[in-house]
Design goal:
Rhopdopsin 7-helix transmembrane proteins, 12 helices
Length: about 375
């Protein structure tokens, strides 16, 4: 067994192990992390293609040449699909155009295998077609994925694959290092065959890192935010409020808070059902975020009670924000809703968090006692 054959067999076993690892990740990670199954299928396609290359001259060319190279192209296409699912980006290429792309690839391999046999042309076709897919994947990763360690490692992996194909295609075009066969003794062919043994683990590590980073992000989000409304939960809201009161105490800046209660929310749940009630809560949150500033905080305090933290805002400015809440409720979907609001502001360094919350709660109680759908300040 020569060195290139050994390298391809080892690379195939590595790819098989990487595929198994990715399938485990796909099975154990939350379903919200999409695309991992496609990554696993891509690694599996590479693992299956390499033994077919090794079988050149032993098994029919339809499998060892056409089938093996088709699996390589399929692997990069599956990787592309997986990244798009992971990033939530839809493909701009129509299924008909993609089918034509694959069929053209197969026809060219059949041509340069059976009609006009040429190892150089087969390498050129494989390099050019996979280069198109990898370049598209490279641009997609740069545009759609956050700048994390996993993304940087994936960019490096793709850059190496792109560089290797450009060099390979360039050398073929210029007549350098023309291969006599898949396993010829040239340095360039040996390097090209050895590339998968490096890139398969590197690429898989980058993909596992991407999935792990997204899992950590989702866990951090779920520990800090309410699942339904995507507002801060009560614990996180209190942490932010402590920071803001401490800042207001140090700097002397203004600070206001609003306690907001959806009026007669129990009636909505009882008459229209809890699913419709959830839609009302989500609509309230969505509309509120359209007129709150980036520096403001919206938190879900309880079932239908919310708190708004308004840094650098006095009680009069907060009252104007309250008007926006009342206006938004009249256009609510799926049904119109109304709110009772209690507002309080940070008074001075002698004020306290408990006193601030107590005043807001008293103001909210007064709004409800006076007929709801109004704002009171304390």
């Amino acid at each position: 067994m020569n060195a290139p054959t050994t390298i391809l067999i080892v690379s195939s076993l590595v790819a098989l192990a990487m595929a198994a690892a990715l399938f485990i990740v796909a099975h154990t990670y939350p379903k919200t992390i999409r695309g991992v199954t496609e990554w696993a299928l891509a690694a599996l396609a590479i693992a299956l293609s390499l033994p077919l290359f090794v079988g050149r001259g032993v098994i029919p060319d339809l499998f060892s040449i056409v089938g093996a190279n088709l699996l390589v192209l399929a692997a990069f296409l599956m990787m592309n699909i997986g990244i798009r699912k992971f990033a939530g980006v839809r493909s701009e290429i129509s299924p008909a155009l993609l089918t034509l792309f694959i069929l053209t690839y197969v026809v060219l391999f059949l041509l340069f295998t059976y009609v006009r046999p040429s190892i150089a042309m087969r390498i050129a076709v494989s390099g050019a077609f996979t280069l198109v897919v990898i370049l598209d994947l490279f641009v997609l990763v740069l545009r759609a994925l956050p700048r994390t360690t996993g993304r940087r490692l994936l960019v490096l992996s793709l850059a190496i694959l792109i560089g290797a194909r450009i060099v390979r295609l360039g050398s073929l075009a210029l007549g350098f290092a023309q291969p006599a066969g898949v396993f010829d003794a040239s340095l360039s062919q040996f390097a090209y065959i050895a590339l998968p043994s490096i890139m398969i683990p590197l690429g898989t590590i980058s993909l596992v890192m991407l999935a792990s980073e997204k899992l950590r992000e989702e866990l951090e989000f779920s520990s800090r935010y309410d699942d339904l409304t995507h507002c801060l939960n009560k614990k996180s809201a209190m942490e932010e409020l402590r920071r803001e009161t401490a800042r207001a105490s140090r700097s002397g800046n203004t600070l206001a808070i609003m306690l907001v209660d959806l009026d007669n929310f129990k009636i909505i749940n009882d008459t229209r059902g809890h699913l419709e009630g959830d839609k009302v809560l989500a609509d309230f949150s969505r509309q509120a975020k359209t007129f709150l500033r980036e520096t403001d905080w919206l938190a879900r305090f309880g079932g239908d009670e919310f708190m708004v933290i308004l840094p650098d805002t006095d009680i009069e400015q907060a009252s104007r924000v309250a008007v926006r809440f009342h206006e938004a409720g009249r256009a609510g979907r799926p049904v119109a809703w109304s709110v009772s609001i209690g507002i309080s502001e940070w008074r001075d360094q002698g004020d306290s968090l408990d006193a601030l919350l107590t005043r807001a709660d008293q103001a909210l109680y007064a709004s409800k006692a006076r007929g709801r759908n109004q704002t009171q300040c304390r």
